[in-house]
Give the backbone structure.
Amino acid sequence: MRYLLLFTILLLAKPSFAQDSLVVDPPQTKWNMFKYDVGSMFTGIGYSYARPFHWQGRQWAQFGGVVAGTALVYTADYETSKFIRANRESVPNWIRDYGEIYGSPENNFLATSGVYLFGLFTKNEKLRRTGVLLVASAASSGLLQQVLKSAVGRARPESGLGKDTFDPFNSNRRFHSFPSGHALLAFTNAYAIGKQFKSPWAKAGIYTIGAIPGISRIWDGQHWLSDFVFAIAISVATVESIDRYLDRKYDKKYNDAAERQAYLKDKKMSLDLNFGAGTVGVVMSF
């Protein structure tokens, strides 16, 4: 009788034990996702600013290559600016208008926020992650270029003062040429979006579209070519850095599982750029 009573107690208790051992995660609400994503944006921005403190020899060599490449373009700024501006009228108006409108900070952040919000409301983690990457990268690079513009104080081509005129911390916008804000914001988005595609042709098309706002500012006499080149370098470095950080925060990415493992294995640094002293432009490895 004693054994029968013990068996009965265990039999009755078994369902409760099974129920207690089953861990069910609460459903993710949009509000919780939003809070998590906003936190990831801010910490991602901080991560991108902290990266130079962790650079080693290879990263500093690449940074030196960026500076050398920009300096090389700088030597020909007058000639390139004159040539590009002389061909302005041959460019269709809709292309010039697109470059001016899309590169503005207001429209840029409206577009990036739209991507993120669509991913949030559809609960699509891949799209949410892309939106976080877009917003955080634009905010990080945008703030940096504002600081650099003021600190460098380079005169714009339209000022007529020449490419070698610098007046640091001058509040007049005529001395806010370096680097190009339109180029930086537009190409930051293009580079982040380009990561969603494996085809080099798709990437090239996206990068070309992303470069138009920066080039349009050269057409309009607002920036020199070296302003554009250095802005592109900042864009790529910022996106790579924040993208690397978000690998820790999100499970899903634009690549499948096998590609993701290869991506993380090959990604040894936050700045995956190669600039040669004899290269005019940007050389990127994928």
